[in-house]
Amino acid sequence: MISKEVQLPKHEATLTAYAIPKPAEGAAPYSYEWKLLSFTKRGGPSSPSDAGALKEKEGSMKNAHSPQLELSGLEQGVYQFRVTVDGGGAGAHAMHGEALANVSVLPRE
């Protein structure tokens, strides 16, 4: 997964997670869960937003249970996301992984 940078007036981004290896033959596909961990507004005091503000930002997330997270309505600042990937096998063959990515939204030029 790669962090992204966008510049206003653009306010959309897509994050993509890749799981390797492919699920074992006959195994269930991987499950994905994206979560917004923090949002730090630029141009003001640099501190993570409170839980209520984070909940409000989650409304701009689509496909939070798929490999591709679509974001819209982004504001100037830095968003940090975690994706958790599970599955691909059963018992000792089950996989689990996590990754972090940032989306930096820069001001207009």
Strand percent estimate: 35-45%
CATH topology: Immunoglobulin-like
Helical/strand content category: mainly beta
Number of helices: 1
Number of E-type strands: 7
Q: Whole-number radius of gyration?
A: 16 Å
Give an overview in words:
With 109 residues, the chain is mainly beta. The chain has one domain: Immunoglobulin-like, CATH 2.60.40. 6% of the residues lie in helices and 44% in strands. It contains 1 helix and 7 strands; from the N terminus they run E-E-E-H-E-E-E-E. The protein has one helix at residues 51-57; strands at 4-7, 13-16, 31-41, 61-62, 68-71, 77-87, 95-106. The strands form 2 sheets. Strands 1-7-6-3 form a 4-stranded mixed β-sheet, with no helix packed on it. The longest helix has 7 residues, at 51-57.
Question: How are the elements arranged and paired?
Answer:
Elements: E1 4-7, E2 13-16, E3 31-41, H1 51-57, E4 61-62, E5 68-71, E6 77-87, E7 95-106
Parallel strand pairs: 1-7
Antiparallel strand pairs: 2-5, 3-6, 4-5, 6-7
Comma- or semicolon-separated keywords:
6% helix, 3-stranded antiparallel β-sheet, 4-stranded mixed β-sheet, Immunoglobulin-like, mainly beta, elongated, 7 strands, 44% strand, 1 helix, 109 residues, single chain
